[in-house]
Amino acid sequence: MNDSAGVVDPNTPSIARVYDYLLGGKDNYPVDQKIGDHFKVDLPGSVAIAFGNRQALVRGVRDIARSGVKQFIDLGSGLPTADNVHQVAARYVDGAKVVYIDNDPIVLAHGRSLLATDDRTTVVRADVREPEKIHNNAEVRRLIDFDEPVAMVFSAILHHLNDDEDPRGVVSYWCDRIPSGSQVFISHFRSGGNAETEAAEQKLQSTFGRGRWRTDEEIRGLFGDLEILEPGIVPAVLWRPDTIDESDLPMSSIGSAARELSVWDQLISAGLARKQ
């Protein structure tokens, strides 16, 4: 997320663009690359967090779609990349509808260009911290039927809400408005209580004024009373991997899934829950 006005500022780093750079994308500026290079060079191995999270998101959308849920709201979606939510969902369920939400203007521009001919997918510029505005948005209402199951996707976004911005309340708002059978996917920075966690958190806070690593208990609390599905809340690289091979592992951590996880692999967790 980003606190800037509705213009693209190439001189101010953007969380969405830094993440795009870490994933090998091209929709970023030197100011974003400078932040990304800090993680690449000064915190070697930390890029594993971005890759592990992205692959867990792909598997999460896959399994939600396989269960028959056809509606997705991706909050804090970031810049388009390979295997976007609407593309993954369409592989596994007919008629999938996807709303991407982000408040970074460059996300809106790129997303609308990508989806210009897709009437089942849209991008809405809005702030995750204002869920009522999103819920009442005309474009959201055009695509999403809240009487039918909805998948709420919070992929690597809630850790960008500080405690006083009430991330639990944001999730709770949506849980109160989606029907039985809906599902909620969350991935989140996981506190390791180590130097790597402290260094990464300090960099995000000093750059963006946000970025909050949370404990296992705090991450579980974000799901409220939802039924957390197997395998629970686990490191993203271990969340429902298809096979023990290299495809689901960060490029910086190639090897057997049975290997001991690196400290970076352990710093982002994922979980999926269902509303009864």
SS element count, helices: 10
The largest pleated sheet is described as: 8 strands, mixed
Helix content: 25-40%
Q: Quote the distance from N terminus to C terminus.
A: 30 Å
Mean pLDDT comes to 87
Query: How many beta strands in the DSSP annotation?
Result: 8
Low-confidence stretches are: 1-5, 244-258
Apparent shape: globular
- Proportion of residues in extended strands: 5-15%
Secondary structure category? alpha/beta
Describe this structure in words.
This protein is of the alpha/beta class and 276 residues long. The chain contains 10 helices and 8 strands. Strands 1, 2, 3, 4, 5, 6, 7 and 8 form an 8-stranded mixed β-sheet that branches.
Main features:
alpha/beta; 276 residues; globular; single chain
Short description:
The chain has 276 residues and is of the alpha/beta class.
SSE topology:
Elements: H1 15-22, H2 30-42, H3 47-66, E1 71-75, H4 85-92, E2 97-102, H5 105-114, E3 121-125, H6 131-136, H7 138-143, E4 151-155, H8 167-175, E5 183-189, H9 195-208, H10 216-222, E6 227-228, E7 234-235, E8 268-274
Parallel strand pairs: 1-2, 1-4, 2-3, 4-5
Antiparallel strand pairs: 5-8, 6-8, 7-8
Helix pairs in contact: 1-2, 3-4
